[in-house]
Amino acid sequence: MILMFVTMLILIVLLVKVKKRLSPLQMYVTSLFSLYLALLADSIFGGMFELYSYFKPGVQGRDFVGAIVIYPAINILFLSKFPIGKSLKTKSFYLLGWTLFALLYEYSAAEFSSFFNYSGWKLIYSVPIYPFLYMILVWNFRLVEKLEMKQERIFYLKPIEWYGSIVFILYFNLSADAMLKGSYELYYYAVNDVHPVDFLFRILVLMVPLLFYLNLQSRHPSVWKFILWIVIYAVLYEIAVWFGYFHERQWNVYFTIFRTSVMLILAQLNLKLLKSLSGRGGELR
After folding, report:
1. In whole angstroms, what is the distance from residue 264 CA to residue 175 CA?
2. What's the rounded Cα separation, in Å, for the pair 234 and 256?
């Protein structure tokens, strides 16, 4: 715990001191993406293959406390100083420096604290992983830059607003599953473990209808649409149960209504923030 809080404090100080060249919208969307990317990697390597864990096996709330500060801060610091427009050699040395930092930090977290624990993972496995993850952050930043410049709307939303909503929904549902499914074991999907079907369920059942809802609410906000979508999700969950893609343990329709309500409200707030950061704050009430 000490290492995690010290890391958070140092990163916050650096964020305040370092000059950021990213716009507020770029910082927000790329930070959301970094959170989702980190949680996705942890779900696969730590959850599906059980190769490592934070503090102790399983999912705890403190895992998210550190992640919400550490990953966005690393993302912003890394992208703010990335040598865009420089030579390949300069970019390679920059990536090498960040990779060495990540490897040293992982070694320290595993050897001298309880922050990171191996259960099959080895430090050598991380050597090719970190440069790849950093490059994904760069590619995502370039995508966000391009989408931010596009002003034409697709079904009432700008491309960057679609993208920011998609990343937020993916992160929200993955983190909700990590706690409700992984930690409290209230339900599971196709099998009682982390499975590729989990990710498919989140995309087709939890994300696509919500994007449709956000588009409709963006045009004509209505409480009745909010209520209607709660009913739609309750039906979708029951259909998933009937087909064997969703298995209830201590779950029931009231939990479905609560989770759906929170998801709809937070997704709308996220879209409102995206609109505000892109200069259209008054369009979504």
Report:
1. 15
2. 6
**Higher-scoring residue by pLDDT: 147, 113:** 147
pLDDT at 228 over 80: yes
DSSP per-residue codes, the chain:
-HHHHHHHHHHHHHHHHSPP-S-HHHHHHHHHHHHHHHHHHIIIIIIIS--EEESSSS--HHHHHHHHHHHHHHHHHHHHT--TTS-HHHHHHHHHHHHHHHHHHHHHHHHSSSSEEESS--HHHHHHHHHHHHHHHHHHHHHHHHHHH----BTTB-HHHHHHHHHHHHHHHHHHHIIIIIIS--EESSSSS--HHHHHHIIIIIIHHHHHHHHHHHHS--HHHHHHHHHHHHHHHHHHHHHTS-EESS--HHHHHHHHHHHHHHHHHHHHHHHHHTT-GGG--
pTM over 0.70: yes
Instruction: Assess contact for 115 and 48: CB atoms under 8 A.
Output: no
CA angle 111, 16, 73 (to 5 degrees): 45
The C-alpha atoms of residue 135 and residue 120 are separated, in whole angstroms, by 25
Which residues have C-beta within 8 Å of that of residue 164, sequence separation ≥ 6? 25, 28, 29, 32, 270, 271, 274
What is the predicted pLDDT for the residue at 58?
A: 67
| Residue 281 pLDDT exceeds 70 | no
Provide the token pair at 88: 């390949």
Retrieve residue 5's tokens: 């809080």
Rounded to whole angstroms, the Cα distance separating 159 from 152 reads: 8
Render pLDDT for 103-144 as a digit per residue (tens, 0 to 9): 999 999 999 888 889 989 999 999 999 999 999 999 999 999
Which amino acid does the sequence have at 73? A
